[in-house]
Design a protein that fits this description.
With about 190 residues, this protein is an alpha+beta fold. The protein has two domains: about 5-85, no CATH class; about 100-190, Immunoglobulin-like (Sandwich), CATH 2.60.40.10. It is built from three helices and eight strands, in the order αααββββββββ. The protein has helices at about 5-20, 45-55, 85-90, and strands at about 95, 100-105, 120, 130-140, 145-150, 155-160, 165-180, 185-190. The strands form two sheets. A four-stranded mixed sheet has the order 1-8-7-4. A four-stranded antiparallel sheet has the order 2-3-6-5, with no helix packed on it. The protein starts with a helix and ends with a strand.
């Protein structure tokens, strides 16, 4: 037996004995909206991950009947690996935290006046680094001239720019991807006078 095969077997046995939890991108049809593995095992189990690797792609049919959407394989089991449209459709809902806000707080904005950048941070009096990364998913329309930018130093996103159109309580929802497979969700309304 080859040395690498022995190491692989030992690694798998260690995982089985100690129930190592992991999150990696498993594929856009590896879980249901209920976060059940498409092979019926819990999404967070490394055993399920190993079993899913053996599952044939043909058994993951995305054309299933819409009536049983909660049971369809439409999500990636690792929440942060889902597309924005999948997240807004309910994928990863078990991993969404809502304890974030803007610092300073978002107030009505003035037309054609640059805003002081608003940082996404945890609620409360903290400067804790959120560990956000990658794509920021935005549902809703920001007024023209405003945008989100990534701040690599603080590992978060900031709302910045100069609003060039009026807006009246435009609802916006953002979902940010964080380390450990966690998602951060922020709902807010933008008013430009």
């Amino acid at each position: 037996m080859h040395y690498s095969a022995v190491l692989t077997i030992l690694a798998v046995l260690s995982c089985l004995l100690y129930r190592v939890e992991a999150c990696g991108c498993y594929g856009p049809q590896s879980c249901t909206l209920k976060n059940d593995r498409c092979n019926g095992q819990p999404a967070s189990s490394i055993i399920a991950t190993l079993t899913a690797l053996e599952t044939s792609a043909a058994s993951l049919d995305p054309r299933a009947d819409a009536a049983g959407k909660d049971d369809q394989c439409v999500c990636d089991c690792c929440a942060v690996c889902n597309t924005c449209s999948a997240l807004f459709s309910g994928c990863g809902a078990d991993n969404i935290e809502t304890d974030i806000r803007f610092r300073p707080s978002l107030k009505p904005l003035q037309l054609n006046k640059p805003i002081k950048p608003l940082t996404i941070t945890r609620k409360g009096n903290t400067t804790e680094n959120l560990g956000l990364w990658g794509e920021l998913c935005v549902d809703g329309n920001l007024p023209k001239g405003l945008e989100f930018a990534y701040n690599a130093e603080d590992q978060t996103f900031v709302l910045q720019g100069t609003p060039v159109e009026k807006a009246r309580k435009e609802p916006v929802v953002v979902i940010a991807k964080a380390g450990g497979g966690v998602l951060q969700k922020l709902k807010f309304k933008v008013t430009v006078k």
